Amino acid sequence: MAEKALPKGSLVLVTGINGYIGSHVADQLLSLGYRVRGTARDSTKLAAILKRLRQRNAAAEVEGLVVPDMQTAGAFKEAVKGADGVVHLASDLSFNPDPNVTVTATVEGLRNALTAASSVPSVQRFVYTSSSIAAVKPTPNKQFQVDSNSWNEEDLKLAWAPPPYEPSRAFSVYGASKVASERLAWDFTKAVKFDFNTVLPNMNVGRILDPSQSASTAGWVKGLYDGDEGASQILQGFPPQYYIDVEDCALIHVAALLEPDVKDERLFAFARPFNYHDLMETLKQIDPSRTQYPPALNDNRDLSKVANGRALELLKRYGRTDFKDLEISLKEQLLA
Hints:
Blueprint: E1 11-15, H1 20-31, E2 35-40, H2 43-56, E3 62-66, E4 85-88, H3 99-118, E5 125-129, H4 132-135, E6 145-146, H5 153-159, H6 170-188, E7 195-201, E8 203-205, H7 216-226, H8 229-236, E9 241-245, H9 246-258, E10 266-269, E11 272-274, H10 276-286, E12 305-306, H11 309-316, H12 326-334
Parallel strand pairs: 1-2, 1-4, 2-3, 4-5, 5-7, 6-12, 7-10, 8-9
Antiparallel strand pairs: 9-11
Helix pairs in contact: 1-9, 3-6, 5-6, 7-8, 9-11, 10-12
C-alpha cells in the first residue's frame, strides 16, 4: 500500500465511535494497524462497542472516553491529546425541530472538536462527517447536478423560519445543522495547520457491527425486514435518494484521513439511486417468504447526477472494484 499521510501505529480520535458509521470507521482503522481512541456520550454504549471492536481486532489498540456533552467548552480537550488524526462523526441526531437546539448542538460540537485539534501540535489530519443533506435536499423526478459547490439552502431557510417549531420541520432542521456545521468547518480550517476533508454520506445500509446499536437507517431496514410497523412507515415515506454500504462509507472516511493527495475535498459517499420500491423488492429476493411489506406509495425516482467519482477512485485504492451492490449489502446485514 502506498505511503499514507499518517503512518501505521498513529493514534486516531474517532468521535461518536458507538454510532453506525463511527464503529465501522474505527473497525477499518484498527484492521489497517492504527490505534483508535473513541468517544461516546454514554459509558454503557461505549463499553459495548469497545468490546466488539476488540473481539474483531484482537491485537489492536482501542480505548474510549466518555464525552457527555460535546457542546461544553473544552469537551474534546482530553480526548484529542496525543492524537495524530481526528474523524469527527458525533452529531445531534435527536431530530428536535427547534433549530436553536439541534443546529446549535451540532455546530458547537464541531467547533469544540476543531478547536481542540488546532491546539494539539500532533494532529495532522481532520475529517468531518457531514451529510448528503448538507449539499442537497432530496428532490424526486428532477434532473440536476450535485457537486462540491452544492449547498442545501432550502432546508436552511425552512429551519430558521419563524416558530412554532412543529415536528414536521425536524428533517429540515437536521439538514440545516449539517449545512451550518460544514460551512463553519470550511471557514475555521482556512487558518489551521492540519489537512481537512469532509465526507457527505447518503443513506447507509449494511452490516451492523454490534447488536446493541440502533444503527439509524440500517435499524429501520432491519425493522422493515422483521415487520416492525414503525420502521415500515418511516421507510415508506422516505424520498428517493442514494444508498451507500456502510463499509464503503467507512473506507471513504479512511481515505479522507490517510491519502496524502486528498486535501480540502468534499467526498460524496453516494453509491446508486434507489427508492422504497427497490428496497422492498430486494428484501423479497433475499427472503421470498416475507411478504409483510407495505406497498410503495409511488415510484418516484432520484434523477440527480452526483459527483461521486472521486469517492469511488479512493475506494479502489483499498481493494474495492465498485460501490457495493444493494442486495449484497443487505444480505451482509440481514443474513449474517
